[in-house]
């Protein structure tokens, strides 16, 4: 079982080298991450974008160039479509966002002609390596679905469980986060959390342990659970934090990064291949971890 993000590199290598397609690749931090992943033997890469700009960055930053192909396409929309086509044709196994808006890349991924749109819900899964926590924390969904309903939350759980299983966490513990740890009829998130917990207990949601509603302190601290007299298998040992909406997920994730010094990795799952997608402000190291994660999941 992977407990720290740095371990993703070894896991990715053991899974075998994949081919990564990068859409609109002319971005310094993206190219630093991609070339390092290639150097480590995790992936070979096909960079789609403005070839002149890509080559300039590679030369200026003195980046590793072996096992890298460049497809020249200056128009961002056409570059995204070309990067997606590489995956649909089997020339690459997964795709990464470069200097392009998320919505524009997903439009190319979800294009019916591309053939990458599966039957599953698309959702975003982030992994945070928080120094003060004893294992990795998965957070979902803070980047894709704004206000998921009950059915969508069940789909979000399914996607997150798929990722944890790929990483050797066979029975992840999921905290359905709310502001309080009791069911309150005026707070929809607590109602959804209670139903998801019951669905899990009745076998409608499998491969995991779901409990909620749980407040964040109970989810990550056994001491808090004891003080509040909450008995839960998940309390203080959570693997997956299921957030009620995109704002809470975004704020919680950035709080872990900027206040707790957490490193992170992120992908979109639910399509026929993972989409490596992290914030433009994230470091090259975070992007490298995300590539390794995408390689493991693909």
From TrEMBL:
<dbReference type="InterPro" id="IPR002505">
    <property type="entry name" value="PTA_PTB"/>
</dbReference>
<keyword id="KW-0808">Transferase</keyword>
<keyword id="KW-0012">Acyltransferase</keyword>
<dbReference type="InterPro" id="IPR012147">
    <property type="entry name" value="P_Ac_Bu_trans"/>
</dbReference>
<dbReference type="InterPro" id="IPR050500">
    <property type="entry name" value="Phos_Acetyltrans/Butyryltrans"/>
</dbReference>
<protein>
    <submittedName>
        <fullName>Bifunctional enoyl-CoA hydratase/phosphate acetyltransferase</fullName>
    </submittedName>
</protein>
<feature type="domain" description="Phosphate acetyl/butaryl transferase">
    <location>
        <begin position="79"/>
        <end position="293"/>
    </location>
</feature>
<dbReference type="Pfam" id="PF01515">
    <property type="entry name" value="PTA_PTB"/>
</dbReference>
<comment type="similarity">
    <text>Belongs to the phosphate acetyltransferase and butyryltransferase family.</text>
</comment>
């Amino acid at each position: 079982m992977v407990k720290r993000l740095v371990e993703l590199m070894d896991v990715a290598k053991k899974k075998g080298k994949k081919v990564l397609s990068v859409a609109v690749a002319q971005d310094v931090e993206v190219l630093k991450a991609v070339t390092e992943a290639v150097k480590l033997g995790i992936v070979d890469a096909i960079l789609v974008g403005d070839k002149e700009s890509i080559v300039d960055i590679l030369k200026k930053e003195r980046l590793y160039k072996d096992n890298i192909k460049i497809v020249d396409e200056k128009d961002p929309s056409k570059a995204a479509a070309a990067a997606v086509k590489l995956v649909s044709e089997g020339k690459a196994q997964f795709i990464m966002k470069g200097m392009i808006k998320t919505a524009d890349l997903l439009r190319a991924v979800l294009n019916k002609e591309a053939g990458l749109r599966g039957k599953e819900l698309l959702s975003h899964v982030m992994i945070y390596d928080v120094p003060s926590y004893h294992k990795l924390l998965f957070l979902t969904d803070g980047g894709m679905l704004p206000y998921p309903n009950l059915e969508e939350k069940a789909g979000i759980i399914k996607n997150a469980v798929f990722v944890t299983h790929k990483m050797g966490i066979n029975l992840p513990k999921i905290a359905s986060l709310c502001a309080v740890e009791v069911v309150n009829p005026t707070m929809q998130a607590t109602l959804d959390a209670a139903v998801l917990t019951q669905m899990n207990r009745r076998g409608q949601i499998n491969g995991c342990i779901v409990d909620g509603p749980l407040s964040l302190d109970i989810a990550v601290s056994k001491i808090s659970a004891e003080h509040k007299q909450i008995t839960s298998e998940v309390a203080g040992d959570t693997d997956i934090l299921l957030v009620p909406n995109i704002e809470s997920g975004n704020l919680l994730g950035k709080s872990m990064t900027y206040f707790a010094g957490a490193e992170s990795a992120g992908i979109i799952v639910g399509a026929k291949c993972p989409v490596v997608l992290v914030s433009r402000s994230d470091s090259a190291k975070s992007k490298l971890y995300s590539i390794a994660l995408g390689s493991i999941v693909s």
